[in-house]
Amino acid sequence: MKNSFIKIATIVAIGSAFFTSCKPKDSSSAAEGDAEKAYVAPGKYDEFYNFVSGGFSGQLSVYGLPSGRLFRVIPVFSVDPEKGWGYSEETKPMLNTSQGFVPWDDLHHTEMSQTDGEVDGRWVFGNANNTPRIARIDLKTFKTAEIIELPNSGGNHSSPFITENTEYVVAGTRFSVPGDYSNGDVPINTYKENFKGHISFVKVGKEGQMDLAFQIVTPGVNFDLSHAGKGKSHGWFFFSCYNTEQANTLLEVNASQRDKDFIMAVNWKKAEEYLKAGKGKKQVVKYAHNTWNEKTHSASSEIKNEVVVLDAAALKDICYMIPCPKSPHGCDVDPTGEYIVGSGKLAALIPVFSFDKMINAIDKKQFEGDYGGINVIKYEAALHGEVQKPGLGPLHTEFDGKGNAYTTFFVSSEVVKWDIKSLKVLDRVPTYYSVGHLCIPGGDSKKPFGKYLIAYNKITKDRYLPTGPELAQSAQIFDISGDKMKMILDFPTIGEPHYAQAAPADLIRNNGQLKFYKIEDNHHPFATKGEKEAKVIRKGNRVDVYMTSVRSHFAPDNIEGIKLGDEVYFHVTNLEQDWDVPHGFAIKGADNGELLIMPGETTTLKWIPKKVGMYPMYCTDFCSALHQEMQGYVRVSPAGSTVPISFSVGTNFPKQTATK
């Protein structure tokens, strides 16, 4: 233990000295950047959409490349009062889980759908790291369309990575835990006996609908990251694994004892064969599956109670372990599908494995024993080679489609370019500072688009105006079209960016993007398709307000007869049939949020008045020159009041006496 601790301390010390005592080589030119290449003139479009994880914000943000302009923050796993996500009655079911309503999560990774290994612009997937879930965002609407919870999982970090035809979205548990179908009330120090890992395979249908097809139970390791095979390695998946010591406390020391951890190779085609042969075992679990309906503009949540589990230790040819330098983080597959890059965070080299050699080693049974019942392939038998002295703290690798790989180094704060076949370092550039993930548009697909590389950094001290103890997170764009990388721009980001993906703008912009909802196709049960249909209906203490919004008034805009103890539901339909004319709705005293209603959409705000009085309501989204005039009033009377329900727009009520 002492030796391992010394090794870690030495690496950290070297990195600290590097960071504090000297600037990276060529830092002055890199710091200046080349802003002309990042400039997008007013009214002109960016070349790429960049979908960036929001980390602890729980959301997904959309930037343009190369400008770095923020276009949109898409609510996914966290409530968002700006758009009413998780506040409106329609969206609340999207955040339902087996734990109940969970209004926050930690979105680390994004992954775009692919066809034949190429980015196709249909959907982008995101993971919830805390309460394990996977979301699918529809790129026709830029709205979260589906969220599925993952049982038997503790920390959904190694996701949501996809197979080359989006057959599956796959996830590995970060924290091994006792399965939901077993007794979880066990001492923590019985980790080796009772804790298991689970890999989830979520089937994706032609329209994007997700279904938890099966899980594979594995020894109790921590899965960090993953990527699917492609081309020749299609049918396989690769996961980085750490904590093979199966420690349960002080992992920074106790999970760094071994010189090597593993890359786990999973033959999911073989797993499918075992499923068809009935080798899976149905286990009783509980998880939520939430879907958005574009016709009703509403979400529904279904609790499911079963999952099929395959045992990797019993079915010997679905999983194999490949030794990898300790604490591997990234696990990346090159565009040909031949090379698998493992990044040991504490290593001073980068191991590159060969798919062909791995298959040959399996065929010849070149194993060095097993780990928890899973065969361990000999390191040299699967190794293509090692990139020597590339930098300190290798994390993630992406590819440009020209035979080059680009790896981030957290400790030495740099991106290094190297040749995949020769393993020769070709170029290196500093980042500012402590880079984590990187993104090359299409960089994990069979057809990278190259041109730009974006580094997502953890530290920004001295890069921007200070903002107290917490500083902005950072992304930096590099031009990689030539032999040498050159920084052209850096920009602050939402939350803590982890992984991100990007695709050509035209691939998404011209893919049938929705501009507004047609009123005639609105099947929301409380839709009000014309102003004449506006009304207020009382049923006991429930009051439903069928309301319309159009430039620049609500109908109705005067409502009386609401009493203390009532539950009021404002069902607001935006009657606009023009692109980019949303309306907002808010009322004084609302203790949840506001609404943001797209053209042709219906959205509901539940409101419970707390005291007698007059409550203004108004449009929160600037919609016209008379936006300020888009307002109204709701009168709330005592619980025993005899004031009847009445409503109007453009007409004063008959004079009524105030209630005492």
UniProtKB/TrEMBL annotation:
Asked if the keyword Metal-binding belongs to this entry, the reply reads yes
Its keywords, alphabetically, are:
Copper, Metal-binding
Stored InterPro entries: Copper_CuA, Cupredoxin, N2O_reductase_N, Nitrous_oxide_Rdtase_Sec-dep, Nos_propeller, NosZ/Cyto_c_oxidase_sub2, WD40/YVTN_repeat-like_dom_sf
Asked if the Swiss-Prot or TrEMBL record annotates the protein with the keyword Metal-binding, the reply is yes
As given in the record, the signal peptide range reads none
Task: Give the top-rank taxon of the lineage listed in the UniProt record for this protein.
Answer: Bacteria
Protein location? Cell envelope
| Short name of any one Pfam family annotated for the protein | nos_propeller
NCBIfam families linked to this entry: nitrous_NosZ_Gp
Q: What is this protein called?
A: Sec-dependent nitrous-oxide reductase
Report the source organism.
Flavobacterium hankyongi
